[in-house]
Each structure stands twice: as C-alpha cells, then as structure tokens.
Structures
1.
Amino acid sequence: MVDLPGDIEDPGRIFGTTPIGGGEAEKGGLAVPTQQFSTLMKQGTPMEMAGKSSMISPFGLMQGQPPLTQAPTMETLLAQMNNAQSTLGDINTQLNTPGLKLKASTKYLVKSKLTDANDQLRTFNSKIGGDVPEEPDISEFKGPLGRFFSYLTDGQNQMEAAKRQLQNLKDQGSNISPGDFLLIQVKLNKAQQLLEFTSVLLSNAVSDIKQMMQIQL
C-alpha cells in the first residue's frame, strides 16, 4: 500500500473502463475500428442509401442488362424483332405528340441512339445474308422533327428486311453457326436497348409537355 500525500484524497477502488463498442478493438490503449474503411465507403452515406429511387432512367436502362444465357433460335429472334418494331411504333407516337419540343441535348441523344440502332440492324441484316435497305432521303420528311421520322423509317425498313430473311431461313431449314447466331442476337439486343432508351427519353419529354399544358389550363 503506497502512502499518499495529505493533499491527495484516496481514490478508492478504480473500476475498469467502459468496454469498447462493436466494430472496434483495443490497440495500445486506443480504440481501433475493426471494420475496413473500404467496406464503410462501399456502403455509402445514410443519405445516399435513403435517397435511392426506384424510378427508371434512360441511363439506368442501358446498364445492368442480364447476360445472354438462352441459346438463340429463329423463333426468339423473330420475337425480339417484333418487340423492337413495337418500340419503334411507340417512338413514332411520341414524336407525333402535339406541341412537342425537344431540348438540344435530347435531340442529340435521340439522333445518336436512333442512328446507332439502325447501324446495328444493318449489321444484323448483313450477317444473316438479307438485303440491306438504303437510308431514306431526309428531304422527304418535313418539319423540325423530320430527321427523326426518317430514322424511324430507316429502322422499320431494316427490320422488315431482317424479318423476311429470318423467315426464309426458317422455312428453308438453313443452319447458322452458333458463333454467328450469338453475334446477330447481340446486335439485335443492342438495337433494342437503344430504341428503348430513346423511348424513355421521349416519354419524359412528352410528360413535361402534358404537365405544362395542365398548368396553363
């Protein structure tokens, strides 16, 4: 027992410190987090985690596509072609919305995605040995959105030619190598994604127009 100076009171029994909280370890008397900093960063901030939205955006549509796991057949390719044609019809309806005005950035994206989709369809036609229709004359389409209607017409022509060739190959029982079959499916999937991207863009623009009209009323 050590004698303390008179001016120092006896501290009595000294109890242990409070246990270190979860996720921390003691090292040299200091609380050290046991969870890796990189793991914490991956979790994101509470605001980021709470603010995630389930709404579909055009950019989200182009990401996270599931891998191609099902072996393609003539039937699946024809079904995909029909879906792509249906999306083209939706885009045509959206572009015919009265009073539709597109921002310069939206026009650029629509032009880029439609021309890219048509290029994919041309490659598709070429790979299956079908006719590759020429691009329509843009001067035949009038109005501020005329160029977009020319792209839609081009896409429809490419799809009709591809469907005829696919049907011919199916009727003749022609075989396509697995490698070529997978390649043409990838091209068709890419075209379909680009068209869906465009449809979402225009859907947002049409929604903005309708909201403006309701506010004016």
2.
Amino acid sequence: MRLELIKRPEHSRLMTLVSPLIAMGLTVIFGALLFASLGHDPLAALYVYFVEPWTEVWSLEEIIVKATPLILIALGLSVCFLANTWNIGAEGQFTAGAIAGAFLPIIFHGWESPLILPLMLILGTLGGMAWAAIPAFFRTRFGANEILVSLMLVYVAQLLLDWLVRGPWRDPGGYNFPESRLFVQEAVMPSLAGRVHGGSILAVIAVAVMALLLARSLKGFEIKVVGAAPRAAAFAGFSRGKTVMTAFLISGGLAGLAGIAEVSGSIGQLRPTISPGYGFTAIIVAFLGRLNPVGIVFAGLLLALTYIGGESAQIVLGISDKIGRVFQGMILFFVLGCDTFIRYRLRLVPSPAAAARRSAAE
C-alpha cells in the first residue's frame, strides 16, 4: 500500500484564510514539546518567547525595526510568487541595495546635504533591481533556473560586501576593524521613536502602493493571470518574459530599498554582516501573509517576534538563540503542509503486487 496526493477539484477559500492560524497553532504546540524536551516549563518558555517581548517598550521597538525589512522584502517576493516566478535571492538583492546606497556617504564622506538620504534610497533601490535583473535575464533569455541563479548571487553579493569593508571601503580610522566609515548625520534615517526609524514609514507606503498595484491595476492583473493561467495569459497577449522581468525588478527594488534602509537606519555603516537572514525569512513572511500586502504586515511582525523571542529565550532560559530559526522553520513547514492539504487529499493506493494478487484471486 502507498499514499498518493490527489488534487482536489476545488479548494476551500475559508481554509485558505484559516490555514496560517492552524499553522501557528501547530507551531505553538510543537514549540511547547521542544521546550519540554530541553527541560523547561513549556508554558513559561512560551510566555518568554511569544508574550514577554510585547510587554516592554524596547522590545516593541526592536520588533518594528526587524519587521520593516521583512515586510519590504516580502512585498516584492509576493509579486514574484504570484507570477509563478521563484526569486530565492532576495538576501543578495538586499545586500546589493545596501552597497549601492552606501556608495555616497562612504566615497563622498564629507558631503552633508539634505539630498544625500533620498539619493541613497534611490541608489539602493536601483542596486537591488540591477542584482535581480541578472536571474531574470538568464531566465527569459536562456531558460536558466531562476532559483539557482538568484540563490548563487546571494553569496556573490555577500562576498563583495566582505571584500569592500575589508579593503577599499574600510574606515581608515577604524583601528583595522572590517567596517566602513560611520555615515554622516544627513545620511542616517530619522528616528521616529527610540530605535524605530523612517524605514518603517517606507514599509507602510510600500504596502499601500503594492495593494493598489495588485488589486487595481492592469499590471497587477497581468502578473496574477500569468502566474495562475499561463495559457490564458498568452491568449490575452500578456508576455511571460516581460512579466518575469517586471516581477524580478519590483522584487529586487524593494529588497534593495530594505537593504539601504536597514544600513542607514539601524546600523549607520557597512559591516561584513548586515542581515540575520532577512531575505530568506521574508519567504516565510510572504507565504504566511498569503501573498497579500496587508497579510504580509501581520506576518512580518510575527516573524520579527521570532528574532526577539529567540534573544529573550537565550537570556532568560539560557538556550541557544538559534531557537528562533527552529521556530521559523516550523512555521514554514506547517504553512506549506496546510496549503498542501487544502489543495490535495491523501488516497491509499494498493501496491502493484497487491493489486495483481487481488486480481488473480478474483
């Protein structure tokens, strides 16, 4: 006997909306089992991980700070995924945007002008778009797998960043540490409240723009049709190649914007490591938010909580901060599992040998 997945003729829209809640419930249950296996009181540990960060002002600020790049990147990824195009290299586009945007305050260090920050944001967006255009070009021109190309470019961007901060862009007065000069005040994102910076406003604006683009524009309709029904899109005259390129450029641009917003808002300089893996975590955010801009906001806050909760668990419970990655993995696993059972059902099928014996017996 074996199990087969059989596609359902129709899937429940209600279950599509509820499945993220089911996935989170399963994550909490298995998280409690995980904490119990580590010798901790499950309820107390879950409180430390999921509830305590919401009770203190500093941790609320950190949740918003970490949610900002997640939301921006996930918005762009949702466009690619809706077009049935798989951009897995947002981490590299994030890094490329940070490098491109940081060019001005590093190379023209003495330039103190109100124009520098807007120009940095524009350069960061263009840098992310340029990095995303590479896998899009190879996909549309040569049929290359965009998953592999975009993923490999992540490591190219990270190595480029490492080389720059250890070499030509290293701070000459930084005691040989691998980091760039500190940005001048005009090149730093304005603070809104404590650690919360202006990048959060950019994320809110991006959510509104993407919601209008996907729901009210012809381009948004084209992206969704190309992703859901390629043959119908071809009959309607929609170009698959142009849609792939457009989706990648939007995705890369938002990832690059997130990169320069993070560097100029939270860090204030370039370092070898500027991201704890935002580009990969944003994939979970996009799917948990159902590829919907508003849903992505809530999913971004939730995944930001996994970073802060992991740090709280490390301090209070004395366990590894990598527990946050474990919870992120569980969320993704259960979201994809729930989505699978929404669209498919399990069927028990007899093996060929068993079917032959049954036929012989009859």
3.
Amino acid sequence: MRLVIDRPVPVLGVNHGNLGFLVEVTPAELPSALMRLAAGDFTIEPYGCLEVDAGGVELETRFGFNDVVLGRPGRAGAVSVDLSVNDLRYGYYRGDAVVSTPTGSTAYNYAAGGPVLSPSSDAVVITPVAPLSGISRPVVLGAEDQLSLTVAPDSAPIAVDVDGIPACELGHGDRLTATMRRKAADVVRLSAAEYASRSRVTLSLLDLPLRPDQLVELVPPELRRNTEAAIGHPEAADRFH
C-alpha cells in the first residue's frame, strides 16, 4: 500500500499471516478473486495513513497505515516525550507510545489497551504503553490535527517503528510529527459484509482467554473425531455436514 500512495491502483490483500484484518482472500481463493477483479466485480475502500516527519532525522519509511511506535531500543531508561497538538502543549508521556490510525487500532494499540476506532472515523489515537507517569490514558484526536512528540532531556534514546519497520532513532530535542493523509490507498473489497463479519469474529477471538489449540479442547471428543475425519478425507465432508 505504501508503494501506491496517492495513485489510483487498487490493492488486493492476500492473507499469509495470522490475523488478516486488512486482507480480503486466502491464497487458495486468489484465482477466483483475480477473475472477479478482471471482471470488475468488486468495490473500493479508501484507507488513510499517517505521514511521519522527524525534522532533520532521515526516515526509512514515512507512511504508516497501522501505527507509529516510539519505544526503547534497549531495556535501559524510559521514553519521555512531550505531546503537542497543533503547536499547543498538552502534556507528556513517560513510557512507550503508540500513534495509531483507525485501521491500526486493532493491532498494537488494541494490545496496549487502546480503543478500537471505526474504519469510517476520521481520527488518530495515541495510546501509552506501561506509562510510569504523565498521560496514562489513550487520547483520540481528529484527522485534521497535527500532533508532535518532542524527546525530553531525561529520555532514553528512542527507536521509532512505522508499521513494524524500523524508521529512525531519536535523541534529546528531536521532534516527530504525524499527520493523517486521507485516501492514501484503495483496497479491493469483494464482499463488504463478509469482510466486516470476518473482522468481528477475529476481534472477538482476540479477547478469548484461550489459544486456538486450547479452544479445540472444548469441543466434545466425538465431534472432534468427526471433524478430523472430514478434514483428512474430503469425500467425507459432505456426510459430516
């Protein structure tokens, strides 16, 4: 998606990971999905991203569709940054910080206790991770707001990741700014209802106190055996259903 920012090139997501909130199809479904794409049987869903700048510090990547994370490169010291919104100082964070888009609100922001933002919302959320002092609750800002985080004199060195990619390191006095860029990329949707339903199920599973293998243990043994037989012998699937 970063490669086609501000270009009208539709992106079809194929899930090769575990969660797949953004993706539309699995690898097995790709051939039929490409046929639908060629036939024009799809809709487009625009996505915004965070555009990041760090003054004179060179960034490996400037665009984040999920989040920007400020954390310690090692275990010594603590991150300490001052928050300003539209050049007005609001407070400070002493602890790692996550700046997230609505898309990324179900990723690290969610794991850190931040809110889930609707994909249709024009908003950005800043969530502190294990704060020692300062701002200790998530802060939701409008998409038009320009936020900046300035490294305080008592801060440890800061490593900045953009969408999980190491972007740069910040030192005392360095200032990172982030603004929302609307409609930065277009994502293909083959079925909006199915995508929304899958995302709700995925989000619900994240809140379960059991891993998938532990969840299977709750299924009655007889039903598990029938399921395994159907999976191992596709011709038995119809009988199982």
